[in-house]
Amino acid sequence: MSEYIPSANIARTRAGQSHYVSDIDETGLGAVDAVADDSAPSSMWGEAWKNLRKRPIFWVAAFIILFAIAMAAIPQLFTSQDPRFCELANSQAGPTDGHPFGFDRQGCDIYARVIYGARASVTVGVVTTIMVAIIGGAIGALAGYFGGWFDSVLSRITDIFFAVPLLLAAIVFMQMFKEHRNVWMVILVLSAFGWTQIARITRGAVMTAKNEEFVTAARATGASKFRILMSHIMPNAMAPIIVYATVALGTFIVSEASLSFMGIGLPPNIVSWGADISAAKASLRSSPMVLFYPAGALAMTVLSFIMMGDAVRDALDPKARK
């Protein structure tokens, strides 16, 4: 009996760079064809991007967010009117040429104030989110990675700040430093009490990631603790942090608007949606549209960040992708 030696016919295609293999089975009755793909598997972020591109809610949210950022960065692209220029002769007048939203009770152009109001609100939301991500991320990462008594101390500090409601703490501190009210003061107060949730999320994600096999392999190669934390653990713990930060950004915009609505947020010389909503209360019955425009801009911006957070969460969740 002759020894069986399988034969193979391998053809490499230009497009997919895949191998087409045709082997004769051991019984000699037929051929077994197989296709092997040489392409490397996509990363988590690559798979997430593929998922996001297919979701209409992502593109709608992205368009609104980019539009709000453009209004905050370059408001001159959208209007040539001065939001602080007011004429009482135009008080509560309807839309006219060059003033599509009409005028408020003081005779100010509502459209210009809506456009320029995005600057304060978006700035507070974006900068506050970055600061709480840095503060909460650092505390949560250190607590989750080192554990032990270090984790206990940082966790109890986090619990103390977590027990204080964000808006209540902001009201108290803004009242204490009312002579220093500005955008950066609002950012500082919100950042000082808004980092606790992201610290808890980061701690849990780091505790999960540090027990993975790639971290054990990194320790075996002699990598330092700092390198393991920054190069191996944190990149794999970023998904829940990004999801929460996206939603929290809208929360901080609402917090700034709430403080301005109560008259303890930004000073009157700074145009903001919250201040315009507060000023519109006096003319709500006679001219409700004065309230509708800044409130609508605030609601659409916050809703877009919430929608973006939901889309990113679904894209980064392996169970949702399945």
Name the helicity range: 55-70%
Uncertain spans: 1-40
- Helix-strand string: EEEHHHHHHHHHHHHH
Average pLDDT, rounded to a whole number, is 81
Instruction: Calculate Rg over CA atoms.
Output: 28 Å
**Strand numbers in spatial order across the main sheet:** 1-2-3
Judging from the principal axes of the Cα atoms, what is the shape?
elongated
- Percent of residues in beta strands: under 5%
Judged by helices, strands and strand pairing, the structural class is: mainly alpha
* First-to-last CA distance: 51 Å
State the helix count: 13
User: What's the total number of strands?
Assistant: 3
Oligomer: single chain
**Biggest pleated-sheet summary:** 3 strands, antiparallel
